[in-house]
Amino acid sequence: MRPWQTIEELQDIVEDLPRFAADLHHLTSHLKLDIAPLNADHISLRCHQNATAERWRRGFEQCGVTLSENIINGRPILLFKLHEPICVAHWQFTVIELPWPGEKRYPHEGWEHVEIVLPGDVATLNARALALLADEGLSQPGIWVKTSSPKGERERLPNPTLAVTDGKVTVKFHPWSIEEIVASEQ
User: Fold this and answer.
1) From CA 183, how far away is CA 186, in angstroms rounded?
2) Phi, psi of 174 (to 5 degrees)
3) How many domains does the chain have?
4) Is residue 51 helix, strand or coil?
5) What residues make up the domain containing 15?
6) pTM of the predicted model as reported, rounded to 2 decimal places
7) Where in the chain does DSSP place strands (E)?
8) Segment 137-185, tens digit of pLDDT
């Protein structure tokens, strides 16, 4: 398998990674979120066109294996397990989430969010995630908090999400790792 940075179909997201890392650092600093002790288990992309998603898929198939292909909220979402990690901050991501375009239009095609795993009772996820964030950061204009419970067709684990975004990048919190969710589908 080739390193992901050398694959022609992925060059736009290779070039986008420094922007994403800087924007993520800005958001987490603004929120006073200490990411050092946190486990982020995967990183996700966003795109506007099916052709872009197909191109990225072809690229990831050259440097990893498909971990899961599922329909979530009416659109395909693929997970890839890479042989060489993508490094952002102190994290080394080997799992990549590639959603096909949905109804929502994102301001940028490229890297969009990281997902942090906070193991524990699913009923307390929101409280545990919010406790990590500074109240003054959350109350600033341009910061949005959203809760949801995305569910794949075959998922058996409840997977609530708390997402915090500034419109450029997003930090999401879940009670389970993505690989635990995929295993629950079997």
Assistant:
1) 6
2) -135, 160
3) 1
4) helix
5) 4-184
6) 0.91
7) 39-46, 64-72, 75-88, 91-99, 110-117, 144-148, 161-165, 170-174
8) 888 889 999 998 765 555 566 778 999 999 999 999 999 998 888 887 7
